[in-house]
Amino acid sequence: MIATLSVINISILAMLGFLHIYWAFGGKWAAEKALPSTPGNEPLFTPGIFACIVVAAGLLTFAALFIIHTFMPIPALPQWLVTNSLWLIGAIFTLRAIGDFRYVGFMKKVKHSTFASLDTKYYSPLCLYLGISSFIINLS
């Protein structure tokens, strides 16, 4: 079961990482629906190339940590680092699912935008899954 959860997490994180790389190099598919927006569907910010690459690097690093933890422990990498990293990943995604109490997460106040609708249906539940599954994988 743990290997299955890890493979699912690795796949999701890798796909999201590559999607951010696609956006960094000018891709437009789904970009406007992935940014928090006002009720009038105006994006709150427009991330640049550097921001997209940093997020992509983080997501791909998270995927690599699941690979290391579950399938290929690297002796030169301290186990406490991998373990604490998975706790941190779980916390990051759980906090993202809860949200900022305004535009993102289950506790958001702005609920009448395209992003808010997609966030409620897909993005926040996905983050909650990644958070909880990270904790479960780490406890194994």
TrEMBL record:
The chain crosses the membrane at residues 7-25, 45-68, 80-99, 122-139. InterPro entries: DUF3995. It holds the Pfam family DUF3995. Keywords: Membrane, Transmembrane, Transmembrane helix. Signal peptide: none annotated. This is DUF3995 domain-containing protein.
